[in-house]
Amino acid sequence: MTARPALVIAAGAAVFAALALVPFVADGYGMSLAIAIANYAILATAWALFSGPTRYISLATVAFFGVGAYTVAVLGEVLPWPIVVLAAAVNGTLLAFVVGLSTLRLAGIYFVIFSFGLTELIRQVVTWYEVKVTNTVGRYVFLDTDQSMIYWQLLGLAAILYLTGYLIGRSRLGFALRVIGGDETVARHVGIDTTRAKLMLFVLSALFMTLTGAIMAPRWTYIDPAIAFNPQISFQTVIMALLGGVQRLWGPLLGVIPLTLLFDWLNANFPNHYLLILGIVFMLIVYLLPQGVAGAIGKLSRSRTKPEPETDRKAHSAEARP
Amino acid sequence: MTTLLQVSGLTKRFGGLTAVREAGFTVAAGEVTGLLGPNGSGKTTMMNLISGNLKPDAGTVRLVGKDITGRRPHLIARGGIARTFQLVRVINDMTARENVVAGLAFRDRPLWGQAAANEADRLLERVGLGGRAEAQAAELTYVDQKRLELARALALSPRLLLLDEWLAGLNASELDGGIALIRSLSQEGVTVLMVEHVMSAIRQLCERCVVMNAGAIVAEGETTAVMSDPAVIAAYLGEEDD
Amino acid sequence: MFTNAFLSGLTMGGTYALVAMGLTLQYGVSRIMNLAYGEFVIAACFAALILFTSMGISPLLALLVVAPAGFAVSWLIYRILLTPLVRRAPNRGALEVDSILATFGMLFIVQGIMLALFGGDYSSYSYFNTPVELLGTTIAANRLIVLAVALAVALAAWSFLMHTRSGTAMRAVAVDPVAAGLVAIDVRWAAAAAFALGGAIAATGGVLVSMFLTFNANIGVVFTMKALIVVIMGGVGNIAGALAAGLILGLAESFVATYVDPGLTIAVTYAIFLAVLLLRPNGLFGARAR
Ligand SMILES: Nc1ncnc2c1ncn2[C@@H]1O[C@H](COP(=O)(O)OP(=O)(O)OP(=O)(O)O)[C@@H](O)[C@H]1O
Ligand SMILES: [Mg+2]
Q1: What's the domain range around C60?
Q2: Does the beta carbon of B15 lie under 8 angstroms from any beta carbon of chain C?
Q3: What ipTM describes this predicted complex?
Q4: Percent of chain A, pLDDT > 90?
Q5: Quick check: CB of B14 below 6 Å from ligand 1?
């Protein structure tokens, strides 16, 4: 069927080892691109981990990302880094549990809107709290770190994410999610605890988003709720994941790389038409690549190897006799 | 003869409509029981109540004496009740084998990996889909999708198999094959409760029948006796007998 | 203070109700979740602004141009951009996802065009900004005009849906497109017409909003969100529900701003919304199971 696990994991490890060398060859600009790619690679892959099989479109990515970033902004200078990261993970997990438990029974559009509304609510509450209670608008994040450190941490997180995703994809949990995505009623009637499976994946996916926010926080040096909870981050995550394709683990990456480069180029050259072009790209994806790049590749290779499906209705009827 | 399934006082309302009304009947272990009734009489709703897809407003469902009323469907499935759907439901973008593995991987004693694949292939063979294991479910014909659904239900190694008009829409030779398949399952010890409109199939397969009309049970007993019951004839008056 | 909060809440609420009515038509009948809805509201704001400042056309007259334009543009968008999605969608869920994604792209395009044309600054103009004495407080005359027009248009739309053949066809499609098709209703036409009517209502709402609020190219999403909140609170496709929910939301905001903390207004709206979504997913008034 597919390649042997040990082989796949070894190949993945080799790729990541090579990527770890990037800071030794890249200049400042190259590093900032590499960080942007790593950042969105984690967000989009983590997003697809949950939304791919279940087909729930979540716009709450930045809620978790922002919680991670804010935890660092608040605790970063008072506690040692590993404990700060742990605190961020705990916050993100708790939030994901509460959100997941209350929303995963909402269907389709309601989930989309809820996830968006929730993010806005969190942003408003944090803003209000900062203004009223702590009397600040934003916070400074002065941490002893540099681009390479941030990059390596993101890379490590990405490695864990891909490994996790790969193992889940081969596990019963991953299979359960595919069944749920195919037909949730069927899933229940074959014995799948759909709520539990969805919740586990949702929390896991949120955990990676939170950690990304925590790692990225020191890059800004200054953050306020509008930066940390910028809905644009959720939107871009969705676009990238969908462009790449959410049915495969490596799919989102195929969207992240070209779009990060494109956005960067647009921002540098057409800062005033950024949104317009973003919108056009989005429309093109929806109309031309409904399954994403990965889906298009998959379809191409499948149509080359697979024979036409059998359509003769009676061909097998005699075999039904025992 | 031991009672496998016991339904009593079961009631389900949808808004103002009472789809199932204080219904009670039993299914004996090892038998094939027919669930009949005109369109809209509440048969599918009854299946949904037994399998946990709907929660009843009143009444109880017992499986070998144990109360399973209102339990969540995945627990009921693991407890040994498998079902097919009136409108066939397969996972379109999975292969036939994967569809059956879905039934194996989450049951009480789950199978996974190579063991699951082997067992899935055996079950596919059993329902007449041998050699179609790699086909996408969406590409299968209607009959084959029905067979696939049955294989998936069997994968749960159920104590009770609920079939909702599984024979509907088959042509004459397919129907014979289907009837023979259900009979052989029964001979292997699977208890079956089947909703069916095809009277010839009921006569051939069912030892006992339960008849519903407008949500209530109007008759229950041996098939031949039930068929001549005036209440049943009244319920079907104007309905075509196959 | 109370009357003031009440009156301005009523004005906001009337506008919300009107704007939400268009969205509930688009979503309920045409099955398109239009995330670019608010951008069309803002586009109408800018249209009214230009007509007023450069040609001296009063916003109320501008309605006669802008609302039909909203109808025409929405009709074209439905026919050209959305019909392919409707055709290819195997089921309602797939159409929902596709339409979310497509209108999401549209959101950026419309917003991008407005940014390119008008920049990101806030704009407003002054029309009938004379204070009026009412119920013991003073309120700007334009707010009262807005409230009156919003309620008039909302009632007109409502009676159109309730008492005309076309309106009845749209309601039938909202309940069950398949059955509607069986009784010889042209479902495609009804869906396109409802989407276009929704666009016309959005445009009307935009013109009214421009009379008393400052706006910029970025705030469309606020109107989309509020319209969505009202639609979901009122129950999808429920016109009377949208009217009531809009007024409730406007009043709640106004009272929170007056008596609690202006900084919490938006937070409170979202909190109300999330609570409704969790506790009554069919809407405050939509007890009917479908
Ligand atoms: N989810 C539901 N919501 C509202 N009403 C329902 C629902 N499911 C079923 N009903 C109604 O309950 C009644 C019984 O329906 P049910 O599907 O159980 O009948 P049935 O006996 O299976 O009919 P058929 O032979 O046509 O399959 C019908 O009037 C149906 O319209
Ligand atoms: Mg039925």
Answers
A1: 2-120+128-279
A2: yes
A3: 0.91
A4: 38
A5: yes
